[in-house]
């Protein structure tokens, strides 16, 4: 049995966890030694009771190692362990770091230069737009964007990095065979296809649960050099991840939001307690160790998903566009500020939408495109 197979077998055993497994590996001199140990010797290790010892001693009755290896091969996945050069160096200093990572795609040594981006699943246009802009800028500069492939902010973070032709890592709260949310499968495929990796510490067919996501969050917090929180309520998983990153000694960044918006209460609270306020990616770059000039991507710094800034506008288009911002505005507000007839404003908004300069949101609210 190889070293990787031994670590995989220990990772497949339920209810032990990486902290106790590492203690066992240190005691027995390797993963293979743990699997060969008698239960009486196992119980001599701190934190290993009779039940855990019996589970390890009879591991072959509880683990389908060959089935997991066959599934790895059939899905084109690989395993990353602590002896691999691409293993995130920060993990060596985390007591609860994962034992291994299942990898769909490729993890590079350069992915250690990374920033985590987290926030709410139920996000606003403002949150999505800020996330896309900042992730684009940071990926363009050479940082790998780490996030969780969830709906909302996570999705915008990955998409921003891809738009910059940069790298991004999606850390799942499920096994790679149970990708969640399923509607992000196409996004996961784009990431794995030469632009980064989709990773998980969980066995391939592990379903997502309320317990797997907090475990995932510690990997996000532990991998990165810093963490950016874009939009979240005062009670959210993103805040828990940010607090965990702070315990790990990471830089904490936050995007401010309106003082009357519940969706920004978490970010505003972080800033109030010491997080660095961010409105541009350069402010994050300034706080991190210098990036090599060659780490920049070849993409234009102008985001192709952003609206053109050089279109010639009519007088009415200029008036209506001037009333729009990243904040959602109603038709009545636009009419009042533009001082135009309702029919003129409606027609002008339609033209601005067709030219990619305005976006209509549900409820007849409008915002300026990026």
CATH architecture of the largest domain: 3-Layer(aba) Sandwich
- Relative strand content: 5-15%
Overall SS class: alpha/beta
Low-pLDDT parts are 306-310
- CATH class call of the largest domain: Alpha Beta
Indicate how many domains the architecture comprises: 3
Q: Which geometry do the CA atoms define?
A: elongated
* CATH fold-level label of the largest domain: Rossmann fold
How much helical structure, as a percent, in the residues? 40-55%
Would you report the number of β strands? 12
Number of helices: 16
**Quick check: average pLDDT?**
92
What's the order of the H and E elements?
HHHHHHEEEHEHEHEHEHEHEHHEHHEE
Radius of gyration: 24 Å
| Lateral arrangement of strands in the main beta sheet | 1-2-6-5-4-3-7-8-9
The largest β sheet comes out as: 9 strands, mixed
Give the CA-CA distance, first to last residue: 54 Å
């Amino acid at each position: 049995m190889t070293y990787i197979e031994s670590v995989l077998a220990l990772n497949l055993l339920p209810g032990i966890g990486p902290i106790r497994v590492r203690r066992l590996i240190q005691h027995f001199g390797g993963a293979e030694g743990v699997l060969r140990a008698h239960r009486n010797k196992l119980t001599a290790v701190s934190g290993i009771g009779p039940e855990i010892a019996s589970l390890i001693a009879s591991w072959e009755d509880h683990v389908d190692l060959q089935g997991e290896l066959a599934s790895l091969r059939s899905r084109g996945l690989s395993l990353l362990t602590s002896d691999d050069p691409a293993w995130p160096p920060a993990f060596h200093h985390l007591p609860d770091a994962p034992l291994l990572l299942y990898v769909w795609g490729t993890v590079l040594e350069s992915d250690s230069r990374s920033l985590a981006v987290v926030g709410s699943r139920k996000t606003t246009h403002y949150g999505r737009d800020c996330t896309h802009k900042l992730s684009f800028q940071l990926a363009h500069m050479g940082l790998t964007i780490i996030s969780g492939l969830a709906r909302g902010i996570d999705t915008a973070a990955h998409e921003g990095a891809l738009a910059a032709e940069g790298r991004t890592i999606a850390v799942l709260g499920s096994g790679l065979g149970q990708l969640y949310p399923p509607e992000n499968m196409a996004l996961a495929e784009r990431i794995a296809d030469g632009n980064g990796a989709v990773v998980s510490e969980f066995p391939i067919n592990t379903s997502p649960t309320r317990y797997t996501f907090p475990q995932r969050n510690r990997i996000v917090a532990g991998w990165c050099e810093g963490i950016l929180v874009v939009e979240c309520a005062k009670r959210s998983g993103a805040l828990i991840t940010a607090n965990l990153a702070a315990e790990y000694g990471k830089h904490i960044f936050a995007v401010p939001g309106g003082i009357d918006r519940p969706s920004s209460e978490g970010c505003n609270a972080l800033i109030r307690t010491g997080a660095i306020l961010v409105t541009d990616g350069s402010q994050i770059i300034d706080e991190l160790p210098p990036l090599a000039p060659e780490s920049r991507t070849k993409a234009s710094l102008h985001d192709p998903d952003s609206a053109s800034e050089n279109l010639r506008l009519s007088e009415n288009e200029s008036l209506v566009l001037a009333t729009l911002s990243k904040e959602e505005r109603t038709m009545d507000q636009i009419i009042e500020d533009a001082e135009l007839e309702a029919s003129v404003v409606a027609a002008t908004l339609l033209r601005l939408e067709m030219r990619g300069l305005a976006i209509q949101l549900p409820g007849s609210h409008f915002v300026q495109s990026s």
